[in-house]
Amino acid sequence: MTEFxxxxxxxxxxxxxxxxxxxLARVPVAGSLELTSRCNFQCVHCYxxxxxxxxxxxxxRSLLDQIAGAGCLFLLLTGGEPLLRADFPEIYExxxxxxLLLTVFTNGSLIEDATVELFRRIPPQAVDITLYGASAETxxxxxxxxxxxxxxxxxxxKLRGAGVRVKLKAVMLRQNEQDLPAIEKLARDxxxxxxxxxxIFSRLNGDRDPLTFRVDPEKAVQLEFSSPRRAxxxxxxxxxxxxxxxxxxLFSCGAGVTSFHIDSTxxxxxxxxxxxxxxxxxxxSFADGWHRISEAVTARDIPENWVCGGCRxxxxxxxxxxxxxxxxxxxxxxxDYLCKLGQTRYMYLLEGAExxxxxxxxxKTVSEA
Length: 369
Hints:
The protein is an alpha/beta fold.
């Protein structure tokens, strides 16, 4: 899973400098809070358990007090489907009053007029909505609710009409891969940003069935690089990451150093992918829990002769100890699917560079003639 990246109108350079300073002091500047594991969709690939009991409003307020006091600035409100909570407006307003800059992850099917007014009155950094298809039939196959497609379209239109910032994304599945170009067109028609992600992992209970829904790596990368903007973003990321000095830590992201995740039961983790590193906030404070999970993460060094250490594709695979643990049972063992994604992206970037060189040589020959 990719590192949580807070939505903000401030510059990318400022965020990088902020993260660097926060990492030095181990300040949890960004986090995600799972308000519920319940959902009105039953997506075939979902990793969550849906039988957990929600924390009461009073407990969530206490956690918001603590994480704001610890220095958190960016907070993602997620689920399950967070808008299923009748007290979502109270949670949202309380978090905003604490000075937290909020992003909301939602499936977009429960956007009512009152929700739109809430977001108009107290604007989030973004409302981030996942599109599962470009038709009612694909929504039926993926989410179990064909009517969800029109509900989501209506919700997006309401938010856009009110001037609320919306971001759209799609998860790549065998069940919706034929819809992905049309999903991206929907995003363009709505005038929003768009991203797609091929990474699917096992359910938190160990069920590996979702892995059968993965799109073939070659097809996934072909879809990624079908957009010149995304291709340019991958090139920029590769060049920047390749020029960085390795930290020596197994966790190269911000998990447990500048960012955290709290699940719907009150369990604090470095990120959603690391349930095996956790602290029960029902038995102690956020400050104590943060110290403990941060120590656990920073103590994990890259092992000697690590197979990923000298890999040229490492900046492109989305390497993640948590994902590796889910996939292979070991944090330092590469996940085959991520390896194939990284290798294929590398070949696409390499071929792009070679095409550019051939074009330059051709233009030079013509000019000399």
